[in-house]
Design a protein that fits this description.
By secondary structure, this protein is mainly α. It has a single domain (2-184), classed as MetI-like fold, CATH 1.10.3720.10. 81% of the residues lie in helices and 0% in strands. The protein is built from eight helices and no strands. The mean pLDDT is 90.
């Protein structure tokens, strides 16, 4: 859980500003969008060997792999949310004398927040899958490692229990993020 927490925190802190930049600035879009779209479709486990070669098999490599899996969905969702902000809101804030920072903080981010939170939910799901898969392949601890070790010795009950625990944790994280989304953006998804 610490690995996913660190990766999610780092991805959120970096992907949201990158997504805002992509959504608002053509130059930033030209720089970041191709890079993200290049690596996004590659399964994270495909670049696991490269990360291990460059950074070793320690915790940093695992967190980096999960970070890379989580970053793209958050950045893309944030950029989408920023691009769909109602221009009338932006003009209204500008006519009231809002600075660039005030515009981002009080208009753009709140308007894009439903998309940002959806990106975090998607990113967390991808990150959790990546964490478990990486533990199945190259780890000495964690749920994936436990399932893999039990499978080698044909201990079916431990394998099933491990899978259930993985599913329950994923479901709990999803429910937690949905609750957070309802709390932060209660107006989103309501039809009149």
């Amino acid at each position: 859980m610490q690995r996913i927490g660190l990766a999610l925190g780092a991805a959120t802190l970096t992907a949201i500003p990158v997504g805002i930049a992509i959504g608002q600035n053509r130059i930033a879009r030209g720089i970041f969008d191709p890079l993200i779209e290049f690596y996004r479709p590659i399964p994270p486990l495909a670049y696991l060997p490269l990360i291990v070669i460059w950074f070793g098999i320690g915790e940093f490599s695992k967190v980096l792999l999960i970070y890379l899996a989580i970053f793209a969905p958050i950045a893309i969702a944030t950029a989408t949310g920023v691009r769909t902000v109602d221009p009338a809101r932006v003009r209204a804030a500008q006519s009231l004398g809002a600075t660039r920072w005030q515009l981002i903080r009080h208009v753009i981010v709140p308007s894009a927040l439903p998309d940002i939170l959806t990106g975090i939910r998607i990113g967390l799901g991808v990150g959790w899958s990546t964490l478990v898969a990486a533990e199945l392949i190259a780890a000495t601890s964690g749920l994936g490692f436990m399932v893999q070790s039990a499978a080698q010795f044909l201990v079916t009950d431990v394998v099933v229990l491990g899978i259930l625990v993985i599913a329950i944790i994923a479901f709990a994280m999803e429910l937690g993020l949905r609750a957070l989304q309802r709390k932060l953006v209660p107006w989103h998804g309501q039809h009149h």
